[in-house]
Each structure stands twice: as C-alpha cells, then as structure tokens.
Write a structure and sequence with these properties.
The chain is 3% helix and 35% strand. The chain contains one helix and 13 strands, in the order ββββαβββββββββ. The strands form four sheets. Strands 6-13-12-8-9 form a five-stranded mixed sheet, with no helix packed on it. It has a four-stranded antiparallel sheet with strand order 5-7-11-10, with no helix packed on it. Strands 1-4 form a two-stranded antiparallel sheet. Strand 2 and strand 3 form a beta hairpin. It is globular, with a radius of gyration of 19 Å.
Length: 192
C-alpha cells in the first residue's frame, strides 16, 4: 500500500511524508518512509537496514561471532501479547483487578486467544478479546483476576489461529540485537 494520509490528514514527516509504503504483516522497518521511487528486483536490497540492521540471531550468538551474510532477515513479526494495565510495579487494591493489553500475530494469522496468569504462569485463565479486525491488526483484550494481598507476577501469552503460542522465557529467544523477543510479558505488582 502507498500511504499519503493517516487518520484523514496528510502524513507528518515523522511518519513518512510525502508517501510511505505500508506492507501488512511485515515489521515496521519494511514500511519505507519518505518514498522517492520504487525498484523491482529479484533479490533483497543491499541497503544497510535490509542487509545488516534487521537480522535475527540465535541466543548464543554475539556481535563478535555473528555471520551477517547468512543470518535471516526479519520480515514477519512474531506472535506477542503485552499487559498495559496495570503497569509494572503498580500498587493495586486486593480483590478483583482489571488487566488490559494487546496482542498481535504475524504470518497472516489472527490472535485466537489470550491467557492471563496471576501467579507467574502456574495457572491461566482466558481473557476476553474486545476488538480484532483481522490478520495483521492489533487485538485488544481484558480480563479480571482476583488478587489476595501480597506480591503477584501477572503474565500474558497469546495463541494464534495456527495453534502457535509464545515462549515462556526470554532466555529462550534473547538475541544481542534485541529483536523479536516475544516471551510471555510479565508484570510484577503488589496488592494491598
């Protein structure tokens, strides 16, 4: 898609004025800003952002040991869910607590469900999806959890329409570039 407006107004320079390419399902780095021309070619671009900046490495690789020429380029985004309310380190009243957030899936899949844990992932309950407009769109969700007084670790994980879910631990997907780290989102809060 070639976008020249956002929300009915001309694009601002920060968003790519005069024209920006928007590629549904691809990471934002592939939606080129300040478009000046289009080239059709049978291989990826050799520009820095394509050839070097947005590459994925496994957890054990460091910048010093990275093989930049053979690392996969990042196109699609990974399934992820995040807790927005309450924020990390929040203090809330014990009892029912509203938890809200978003989820997003790549590869043309939709978010099938979001689950919330109030005990660090030991038990889960399904959140209610409030809005999802199809693949490549944000899915907004909410759930109510009952919290006793004390410290709690809230976790969120999503499942997509292909049956995939997120990894539990950041260590399983961590990479030195920091890209696509989609482990369960964890928020530590205190109820009193």
């Amino acid at each position: 898609l070639l976008a020249y407006e956002m929300n009915g107004r001309p694009l601002e320079p920060a968003h790519g004025y005069p024209v920006r390419v928007v590629i549904p399902g691809y990471i934002g780095a592939r939606s080129i800003k300040w478009l000046g021309g289009i080239s059709v070619q049978d291989q990826p671009s050799t520009n820095f952002a394509q050839a070097r900046a947005y590459k994925r490495f496994p957890p054990g690789v460091s910048e010093a040991t990275a093989d930049w020429d053979h690392a996969p380029m990042i196109y699609d985004f990974d399934l992820t869910a995040a807790i927005c309310v309450p924020p990390d380190a929040a203090q809330v009243a014990a009892g029912p607590v509203n938890v809200q957030g978003y989820a997003l899936s790549g590869q043309g899949h939709t978010v099938a469900r979001v689950e919330i844990s109030a005990d660090g992932g030991a038990t889960w309950r399904e959140a209610r999806i409030e809005q999802q407009d199809g693949p490549w769109t944000w899915c907004f969700w909410q759930a109510t959890v009952e919290l006793a007084p004390g410290q709690h670790e809230l976790c969120a994980r999503a499942w997509d329409s292909a049956g995939a879910t997120q990894p539990a631990n950041l260590e399983d997907v961590w990479n030195f570039k920091g890209y696509m780290n989609n482990a369960w989102h964890r928020v530590k809060i205190e109820a009193s």
